[in-house]
Automatic annotation (TrEMBL):
InterPro entries: ZP-C (IPR055355), ZP-C_dom (IPR042235), ZP_chr (IPR048290), ZP_dom (IPR001507)
Name of protein: ZPC2
Residue runs in coiled coils: none
SMART domains noted in UniProt: ZP (SM00241)
PANTHER family linked to this entry: SI:CH211-14A17.6-RELATED, ZONA PELLUCIDA SPERM-BINDING PROTEIN 3
Keywords per UniProt: Disulfide bond, Glycoprotein, Signal
Signal peptide location: 1-19
Organism: Oryzias latipes (Japanese rice fish)
Domain ZP, first and last residues per copy: 26-273
Length: 338
């Protein structure tokens, strides 16, 4: 009873204070300094002010009776999250006021962000092709994985709600080949881990690198962070709902700059026309995506007679959560119907 009453009183005072919070943020190279000035009613609760999981590193009582909480922490502390947004690296956290013990509601939250330009040629650690040995043309090592929505790591679940985005990452270890351009020549979704003549399939990429799904919905190739990797950003589609789905891709590698009708990554952009991912000024090579793209080209980098590498991602499970919630609602009504 006392704790609840205390929380209600503090909340009322906080709302009455009403003004914009007096918060100053200074972003350094790998850390942040935050100064949070609070009015006198909150001074007794200085220990309940947090930056993420961290308490103030310094507290000062001002002559006016107000107080100032100082937070000076590295991004490796306080549970900061790191996100990649296009050409930027973003570190996020939040200031919070918790008048009661952990587990009780937070009375106030204020997001804190530090945004930095991504270094040229920088590769996120989790996307680094790794330390495996790759020697000669025959030992290229390919990888494919499903990333989380923030593109900050490999997804922790293989269950994807219908309509949500699933970033599919592919990369090639290229230690003995500098540099290589990785392309998705063809990708299909199937309900089986191995493709056979009877497999039910949904074509995603075809016609030598044309992202066909971008004509049907919101799908693009994301800007590259390195030529040896590519991220297919695609909306979960209505295929094999509730069952296991596997993404089968034929990955090919070329000498960087060797773009053409048979070696390209093309997608339909907002303007409704095909665009070449790696050089929009040469998007004319994508014009064949609506017909048939020529396959007359020199062989890709690899064993003689080998055009690429077939890799499989899965199983993934695409679920229509709205249908599931509607079924639950109907089932909970008297008589089981509306």
């Amino acid at each position: 009873g006392t704790c609840l009453y205390l929380g209600a009183v503090i909340l009322a005072v906080f709302i009455a204070a009403g003004a914009e919070p007096d918060i100053k943020v200074v972003c350094a190279r790998d850390s942040v300094k935050v100064t949070w000035r609070v009015s006198s009613p909150f001074v007794p609760y200085a220990a309940r002010l947090f930056l993420g999981s961290c308490m103030p590193s310094k507290w000062q009582l001002l002559p006016s009776g107000d107080g100032e909480a100082f937070f000076d922490y590295k991004f490796s502390e306080c549970k900061f999250t790191k996100q990649i947004r296009g050409k930027n690296v973003v570190y996020r956290n939040e200031l919070s006021f918790r008048p009661q013990a952990k587990g009780r509601p937070v009375v106030f939250k204020q997001p804190i962000e530090c945004v930095y330009k991504r270094p040229e040629g920088w590769i996120p650690p989790f996307l680094n092709p790794g330390s495996g040995v790759s020697e000669g043309h025959s030992n290229l090592v390919f990888h494919m994985a499903l990333l989380n929505e923030q593109l900050t790591g490999v997804a922790k679940t293989n269950v994807i709600p219908l309509g949500s985005f699933m970033p599919i990452w592919a990369a090639v270890e290229q230690k003995s080949h500098q540099p290589l351009l990785l392309l998705m020549d063809e990708c299909v979704a199937a309900t089986t881990p191995k493709l056979n003549p009877g497999s039910q399939v949904h074509q995603i990429v075809g016609n030598h690198g044309c992202l066909l799904e971008s004509k049907r919905g919101s799908a693009v190739f994301l800007p590259r962070y390195h030529s040896s990797a590519i991220i297919l950003y695609i909306q979960a589609f209505n295929f094999g709902l509730g069952d296991e789905v596997y993404i089968h891709c034929n990955l090919v590698v070329w000498d960087e700059g060797a773009l053409g009708q048979s070696r390209k990554a093309c997608h339909v952009k907002d303007h409704g026309s095909w665009e070449l991912l790696d050089d929009p000024s040469r998007s004319s090579v994508c014009s064949c995506c609506d017909s048939v793209c020529s396959s007359k080209a020199k062989r890709s980098v690899g064993e003689s007679g080998t055009s690429g590498y077939n890799t499989v991602l899965g199983p993934l499970v695409i679920k229509d959560l709205s249908a599931a919630s509607n079924a639950t609602l109907v089932g909970s009504l008297p008589g089981g119907s509306l």
